[in-house]
Batch of 4 targets.
Target 1
Amino acid sequence: AKQDGGGQYCFYTEEMDQHITRKLQLENGLRKAIEQEGIDVYYQPQVDVRSGEIIGFEALARWNHPEFGFIRPDEFIPLAEETKLIVPLGEKILLEACRQYQQWMDEGHDLERISVNLSAIQFMDPTVVSTVESVLKQTKVAPAHLEIELTESIVQDSTQALPVMNRLKKMGIQLALDDFGTGFSSLSYLKDFPLDTLKVDRSFIQTIHENEKDRAVVDTVIQLADRLGLSVIAEGVETEVQLDYLRSRGCAEYQGYVFSKPLSKTEASALLTQSMAM
Ligand code: C2E
Ligand code: CA
Ligand code: CA
Ligand code: CA
């Protein structure tokens, strides 16, 4: 029994060690990846529900670790936030995404926007406004074509985040509230925040066909956006049935696997060229 217990104990600490070791390895790896361009930006099309045309792209970070292989943003973004590495990482992604957007425009594509995710931590960093300014200047992207996606977690720190949001808004940048409906129960911040767009979280879209309550939520968000003078985009649209429903409800834009997964810049360029030729 003693041996068993000992064994279990050892096993347990080993697991913990492995967990901590992986975390440390990832943290060091992340630092290196940021320095050495080891993080890629992928692009998911944002699509006009009626015309089926590509309106823009959302930039999504991808990390191909030399040892562990592909690591999902759900794992490394929280780590980047914890270690504040999200600040230099976010800056790189913003720069890369804006560069790519401008390249597509220079090649003759007509895209309304590039959407970039900024974490709440970045909004707490006072340099964020000058960073955005400098990226727009370097890449010659007009502010109206940049959309910044933020999540409701920003509400918690709104005394710091609100002035930043207002300054970005004043520059002419678009602000979208991501994962809408999953965060805070109070909606009062909607009237204080200078938002342009609500993004309906994919959890409500996914079960639209089987769940009357999810339909009610989606309908309500679309109506709410309309009443508040905001645009609305549905994310995580995977089936034609879901898309048909959104169309019937007057939802203007969507993203999702039914149209395309996030693509490498080469794949995204090919898709744009192909849709231009049609
Ligand atoms: P998000 O901003 O809500 O991004 C949408 C996520 O849904 C992406 O996951 C995308 O690949 C996935 N997705 C798109 N269409 C579908 C669909 O039809 N079905 C399903 N099941 N999923 C779909 P991804 O790329 O793994 O990113 C996860 C999260 O990581 C993002 O959620 C965002 O919160 C964060 N993230 C990714 N890139 C960045 C970044 O550059 N900066 C920051 N701050 N966060 C990022
Ligand atoms: Ca997003
Ligand atoms: Ca989202
Ligand atoms: Ca999310």
Target 2
Amino acid sequence: TDPILISELANRMAIKSAEVVKKLFEMGMMVTLNEGIDGETAVLIVEEFGHKAKIINAAAVEDVLIEDISDDDEGDLQPRPPVVVVMGHVDHGKTSILDALRKAHVAAGEAGGITQHIGAYMVKLEGGERVVFIDTPGHEAFTSLRARGASMTDVAVLVVAADDGVMPQTIEALNHARAAGVPMIVAVNKMDKVGADPEKVMRQLSEHGVLAEDWGGDTIFVPVSAHTGQGLDELLEMLALQTEILELKANPTRRGKGIVIESRLDRGRGPVATVLVQNGTFKQGDTVVVGSVTGRIRAIVDENAKQHRTAGPSIPFELLGLDSVPEAGQEIFTVESEKQARDIVRYRKDKEREQGSEAQKRASLDELFANM
Ligand code: GDP
Ligand code: MG
């Protein structure tokens, strides 16, 4: 995370910067007035001065909220469903595979309901295990998250059409999965088509360092067809196996924190964000912040248009109640109060403005030199 300037920190506590420097010195840290300190140290300092960290500075707030589950008490951790991202070249059948999986596994009582494309949804397996799938229309969210060192997915399914073979976006997707460090399963789709050549796909991918188990490598290839349903059960089985060993856990008792994977303005419902919960639980009535957008959760809606009071770890849901439409790819989290939400947004806007005016200054200097 970004370092916080000592002067900024002091300012927010209404004390002199020198006092902060002195305190840091006492703690064994030699810093000067104009240096930044990391969020963790900032929280320490703030507490040393008798304040609560969360109300002082949004950067610190984010640090507090972005703690990973290693900060959770072991006893609070509970198993959570795996989040699977489905990637691949356009038209190779990502959405079709997801639709087919979903149709075959709609929970009783949900069949026949209006299903909406919210870009993510949950499938229940025979054994009762749940798997959450994300359909990526673009990889932007994935990329911007990765840039911040966060990953929202546990496993990637790389879809390659058996007739088309490996294409540019296949490689792009492969690189994303690699960079995210998540295990990958290859689904060789459109096996029903004349000219389907799964061996060609295996050969092509082997040239990119992905070796099938059948060929002595460690990547699972599953031949499937979204149209006939061939191989889909096996794909789910492989996913279940793959994720079992990951022993995924989260802490549903803490405040909700997640990622906006899609967002739009709905004529009737206002700003709508599809949120994937990373940790904690979102509740109706919670105050949330995402980027510089705030809001109170008016409704939590699943992909079957059903409303819920809460949404826990790994659950994708549509969130209603935001003041405006947030950018996809951003982190969203629950805060304690509307005041805290406003503080964070003000801080973020100030920071944006600062960065904006700095960029402007640089630009005008450049102009100046250019004109000399
Ligand atoms: P996406 O862009 O990866 O999401 O691909 P889509 O799911 O939209 O599929 C692109 C096209 O391929 C559509 O016309 C699908 O009907 C077709 N398609 C998808 N899966 C299969 C399959 O298993 N067999 C055949 N024959 N066509 C498929
Ligand atoms: Mg699609």
Target 3
Amino acid sequence: MAVLVTGGAGYIGSFTVLQLLLADYQVVVIDNLYNSSVEALERVKFLAGSKAKNFLAFYENDIRDKQGLEKIFAEQTIDSIIHFAALKAVGESSVIPLDYYSVNVNGTIELLQAAKKSDTCRSIVFSSSATVYGDATRIPGMIPIPENCPLDPTNPYGRTKFFIEQIIADHVNAERNAGKPWNAAILRYFNPVGAHPSGILGEDPQGVPLNLLPILGNVAVGKIEKLSVFGNDYPSKDGTPIRDYIHVIDLAKGHIAAVNYMKEHSDTPIKYWNLGTGKGSTVFDIIHAFSKTVGRDLPYEIKGRRAGDVLDLTADPSLANKELNWKTELTLQDACEDLWRWVSNNPDGYRKPYPASLNPQ
Ligand code: NAD
Ligand code: WQD
């Protein structure tokens, strides 16, 4: 029995595949490499050492390709899915919303249809996002954000996640009513950051980076002249917005905990868990932490607010802490140091293979 990881060559997917292999899960990956490279999977196998034998197959395939999916489910015995594959750029989602609905929503429906047809797979762990909460500060008492905070996504990307959460719940309920004990874990991530401490696995988006720490990484290696700080007039301690930055390795481990939980609780139809640290950091906290790691002040300039940004997205992760027996272990400083090792060792991302003779830590 294997776990099918969609989007497994991507940033969070590759770290999760590594954790799955290390935890002795057999893994099958599907990815169309739209925003990733197969080199990431080579490095995952390298880091997994002898456990790379648990990596069964990689399929370069679109999740909307019905025939491709059916072939994978026929060739492999899949018993659960971790579903990462998606388009994820918030701004772009307002420009090409139909593409976002096509990949994210239609892709999930095709995936569920193929899984249903296979009849071996009855569990899905889904990559949702804190963005489904929208501006939680609109409701008093909702910071840190608990899972029962009312959902109010404010952009097409967030709405794809919101709709998919409901589609998955409807599917699970229908299957259970038909006597097939499907279950699902909806994981709402806060801001994933960092890289592997070996410096050989990290985030390598196609095109320009859009998120704060990857941009700072590019400033540090001279690829971007300076960071634009989007607003310093928010009601926070230093005027910049607050986010909950979670190390990608802690996040990946949260997926293993969720897969284990769903296996052990086939009586539980659906669970919703926030994966975050519970600790908020401002943009200036991040600039200072990363500048300290790099050993010099990184240039920035204050610009106007970015449309759609909210003051505070800090998780209340206590439900996941308790039920999954999972909590974050790595710090923001760990994330900065790991990111720095990644960007300085791989200024061109995965485009140059890492020499296999170098031992990871
Ligand atoms: P990523 O872009 O690195 O990974 C997504 C992967 O999906 C990529 O490898 C891409 O090639 C693949 N993919 C895209 N469209 C596909 C398709 N049609 N068929 C098959 N594969 C396809 O992104 P990530 O940061 O690793 O995010 C993974 C998941 O987590 C996404 O669902 C994202 O929405 C969600 N998420 C990410 C963040 C974040 O800040 N990184 C936060 C919350 C939620
Ligand atoms: C973080 C902070 C910016 C860039 C996004 C998605 C969210 C989730 C995680 C997928 C904010 C500030 C940023 C810059 C800046 N992804 N910033 N200058 O917006 O919190 O969350 O990624 O689900 O849905 O919206 O992350 O890294 O873009 O921004 O000042 O050049 O950094 O204003 O306060 P965000 P981010």
Target 4
Amino acid sequence: NPISESFVPCFSSRINSTSTSKIILTESTADYSLVLKSSIQNLRFLNTSAPKPQAIITPSQYSHVQAAVVCAKKDGIQIRTRSGGHDYEGLSYVSKTPFIIIDLFNLRSIDVDIENESARVESGATLGELYYTISQKSKVHGFPAGTCPTIGVGGHISGGGFGTILRKYGLAADNVIDAKIVDVNGRILDRKSMGEELFWAIRGGGGSSFGVILEWKLRLVRVPPSVTVFKISQTIEQGATKLFSKWQNIADTLHEDIFLHSVVGVGNKAGANGGKTIIIEFGSLFLGPVEKLLPLMQDNFPELRLDRSNCTEMSWIESVLYFAYISINESEALLRRTQQSKSFFKAKSDYVTEPISEAGLEGLWQTLIEAEAYLILTPYGGKMSEISDSETPFPHRIGNIFKIQYMVTWDDGKETEKHIGMMRRLYDYMAPYVSKSPRGAYLNYRDLDLGRNNACNTSYGQASIWGLKYFKNNFRRLVHVKTLVDPANFFRNEQSIPVFPSR
Ligand code: FDA
């Protein structure tokens, strides 16, 4: 049915509002295009040929989400739910089958309760808004989630969510106390009424397979009044390969108060002869003062030659700005909902369980230079090793030294094929050096190269190709939960959890 004849009347009759036109945006509405583009992060999906939604619903009340689900289901229209729009493959706003977007940017209230060390946050809020609001209430509380402030809490937390304090406190999803979700029948369920199976599934299994998450109740974590940060860079000519080799051996065994990640990029060689080189930046957040950090680093990583002059003490919220590449005096910048600059990008992920040999690294540097890509390597260990693989759907816990994110960005849409091809080559090169059977991947770094569902139903076997990579042994349990709560597979996308066939 044309959307105006069935969905719109159905939706209007169900919501108690005189201004339906502000809540449903169709292609003829002035704001449609503006809202559609507003939170698209990956320019690959901003082009005019990308399929567009029949309508964008911008709920300001939970009842609007309920009405959208009920009416879309009645008409067999797919729903794409968008919180912050950071999905790497655009799954929150692009679909090949007729669809609407539920864009939650108006549902973003945040209540911080310091006495109970918790916060209630609606899905459309960004991480920046969450961190800022916590910091306005307390200098000694924080939340363990991602470093990019414009990410939406809806997608991020339902896919795991990690940042600079993961070694101390685990993932964002590990710190969820309760949630509210609109299910396939349009009911609002909380932890008690959804039951522990669904509550388990939405903390790492991705929200989009199970319903529309409205809000989270989060456990805040304690941070000291003063933390220490540093960044030290070296090129391979200066000996960065040896430093990196050492880093691989200690990054996951350091005290859990130390987060020491490395970012490996391509730069220009010093000197007149030119050419490309690899630059490795070791960046750190330590939950404490510099006097405590220096001896710990001296004992574990003396080769880095960390000195007091490399370090800066600051508050936790300033460290959030520092890792987001924002001036530490500009805390209000955390409230900006869109990124200052956007590009085309393709990313992939891997988990490393054995240090990579120096010969392997030399080949990696070469492949990286050819691909013009960069790597962000996140150390595990600490709290990540204490949580069992099945506690949440996110299975990459003990035994992982670090996670790799491969990233390539470009500014000219005509170069898309070239860059994606080189990214795939880089990923192939890394196969011998990373986790195997299955080769692990992080759901929040969504990668459709790993496999995709059919338009309607997909078998367990077919979906296992990508499902086992993201979820390992938790994949089967996710399929069970999905079959229980959405047996007709209404909430689906290219990588949603499939259902078991009915008997
Ligand atoms: P978006 O709105 O695109 O949603 C992502 C997925 O979740 C989609 O499938 C969507 O349908 C679904 N979804 C969203 N809201 C939902 C809801 N309310 N109910 C049900 N389903 C919902 N990750 C990380 O762990 N640490 C980091 O530091 C970073 N850094 C980073 C930087 C940049 C620049 C980007 C682009 C991405 C990251 N990420 C990251 C990855 C990020 O965590 C991931 O893309 C999240 O899924 C983004 O969540 P959004 O709500 O912003 O995305």
